[in-house]
Write a structure and sequence with these properties.
Length: 571
């Protein structure tokens, strides 16, 4: 039996697992890994396949059976992190957006970041005013099909590309006009570089939205960018907090806390509620990693962070990679011949139809489609009162790296950035957590009641880890609908947490008293004559306690027991 168990264990250790990783150009990389293979091993295989040296900006993402997204941890076993059954499906994505993507050393790195931002643009995560949207789309056209050729590109050719969740005819004409007249002669590398320079200036550059609700039950999206922590509500960026102002992040159940310390104001605590405890933990881990990557000077300064307090069992997490400054210093030392880049060109794409010649997706006629009003108002409006008692200063993300003159002007007053005319609504399939089915039904009903076309564009999301998640998912959804009982549910959750903490305290107290009672009985009643017990018994305090308190108590207890026994015998 022992030999059979040992042979079975060795077979389990030697077992190989098939992995499929979907890359940014929608191609796939397949490999096999051992049971004990770490995440770093799989990541190094991918980077070798891509001939990528500036790899610290990227990561591997997967979805568990509960549709919760995770970043693969490189210091842990891949198999132990994947709760789904093999074969495993993961995605290669940008995890830390470069502060200045145009300053990346190698063209291959810029190309991969270009593909990621193009996905962000298509899925509604990257918003901009109409003129900027037309310019970005024209850069994509120039990079993928080259110069305008009347023989190859008939009238309306730009309408066959899907750059955004929705298009308008006016926007398509503007894209074609810029492509024809302003970008002629630009190589793909030059167009991609110009695209990155423009995208980096936008308010929502680097945003990976996490759906939450504030203390009033209003829907919000939280995000971590290269420049700080961002809160988006409705069509506005209500909070922007620089990384050096964030002092602490923690979570308890579904509740996420952000501790902020600013020069002019007192310390502030922002509180938000995630859809699930797993979503809240993912949000917390993303915040810890982003703050360490962008804020610290050296990776040796990274410390293990705990979310626990006195009565709650918390999580411990430590960022394991290099920080942004170290990555830039390492990139400057790269000296090799630029690797050959195999651009996707016009290869069909599952999740980015912008590089296909297929018809544009829409469930309503062209005449009824509304333009995507992705406009940013010139300047910034004054900061309005939010749901929090103390407003947090909002500043442009570029100010975090600007000179003293510019930052001084930006900080002269409190402001809030208007992102778009419509609610910030990235596609559901790109959110870290799923939207509940009843929330989806409410959103569709509300849109119909308001007379808005219920156009739901399906996309085959590539970031899936289960067969169910690989099915076509809803592409464009509105922001989470605030529940009518959001505040009441939050209060009930806080009461439940308080009750649990009190119960834990009582259990710990009873346990300690029980241990002390056992020790007391051993000291007074046992015949153990060890040096430890002998020293305690010979102290005057113990002798006084033994003869004045313990012996009378023992006689009283014995008397009561005899009385109860005699009573039982008589009856």
């Amino acid at each position: 039996m022992l030999s059979r168990w040992m042979s079975g264990s060795s077979r389990n250790l030697d077992r190989e697992y098939n992995c499929t990783v979907r890359l940014l150009d929608d191609s796939e990389y397949s490999c096999t890994i051992q049971r004990d293979a770490k995440g770093q091993y799989l990541f190094d295989l991918l980077c070798h396949h891509l001939n990528l040296l500036e790899k610290d900006y990227f990561g591997i993402r997967f979805v568990d059976p509960d549709k919760q997204r995770h970043w693969l941890e490189f210091t842990k076993s891949v198999v132990k992190q994947m709760r789904a059954q093999p074969p495993f499906t993961m995605c290669f994505r940008v995890k830390f957006y470069p502060t200045d993507p145009a300053a990346l050393k190698e063209e291959i790195t810029r190309y991969l970041v270009f593909l990621q931002i193009k996905r962000d643009l298509y899925h509604g995560r990257l918003l901009c005013k109409t003129s900027d949207a037309a310019l970005l789309a024209a850069y994509i056209l120039q990079a993928e099909i080259g110069d305008y050729d009347p023989g190859k590109h008939p009238e309306g050719y730009s309408s066959k590309f899907q750059f955004f969740p929705k298009h308008s005819e006016k926007l398509e004409r503007k894209i074609a006009e810029i492509h024809k007249s302003e970008l002629s002669g630009q190589t793909p590398a030059t167009s991609e570089l110009n695209f990155l320079r423009k995208a980096q200036t936008l308010e929502t550059y680097g945003v990976d939205p996490h759906p939450c609700k504030d203390v009033s039950g209003n829907a919000a999206f939280l995000a971590f960018t290269p420049f700080g922590f961002v809160v988006l509500q409705g069509n506005k960026r209500v909070h922007f907090i620089k990384w050096n102002e964030v002092t602490k992040m923690k979570f308890e159940g579904k509740t996420f806390y952000l501790y902020v310390s600013q020069k002019e104001e007192k310390k502030i605590v922002l509180t938000y509620f995630a859809p699930t405890p797993e979503a809240c933990k993912h949000l917390w881990k993303c915040g810890i990693e982003n703050q360490a990557f962008y804020k610290l000077e050296k990776s040796s300064q990274v410390r293990t962070v705990s979310s626990s307090n006195l009565f709650f069992k918390g999580s411990r997490f430590r960022y394991s990679g290099r920080v942004a400054k170290e990555v830039m210093e390492s990139s400057a030392k790269i000296k090799r011949e630029p690797p050959e880049i195999h651009r996707a060109g016009l290869v069909p794409s599952r999740s980015c139809p912008s590089i296909t010649h297929g018809p544009r997706l829409s469930s309503v006629p062209r005449t009824r489609r509304r333009a995507v009003h992705i406009s940013i108002m010139e300047g910034l409006e004054s900061l309005r009162d939010s749901a929090h008692s103390t407003p947090v200063r909002s500043a442009s993300h570029g100010d975090a790296f600007a000179g003293p003159g510019r930052s001084g002007r930006a900080e002269s007053s409190e402001r809030v950035a208007v992102i778009a005319d419509e609610n910030y609504s990235p596609a559901d399939s790109v959110l870290p957590t799923p939207v509940a089915e009843h929330s989806l039904e409410l959103m569709l009903l509300s849109r119909q009641a308001n007379g808005a076309p219920c156009s739901i564009e399906e996309e085959k999301e590539s970031e899936a880890g289960t067969p169910a998640a690989e099915a076509e998912e809803v592409g464009e959804l509105r922001a989470l609908c605030p529940g009518a009982g959001g505040l009441g549910a939050a209060q009930a959750e806080q009461v439940n947490k308080f009750v649990l903490s009190v119960l834990r305290l009582l259990l710990v107290t009873v346990g300690l008293l029980f241990v002390l009672l056992l020790l007391l009985i051993v000291l007074t009643e046992s015949d153990l004559d060890t040096a430890f017990f002998r020293d305690i018994r010979q102290t005057p305090e113990f002798e006084q306690f033994h003869y004045q308190y313990f012996c009378p108590l023992r006689r009283w207890f014995a008397c009561k027991v005899r009385a109860v026994v005699s009573l039982l015998i008589d009856t």
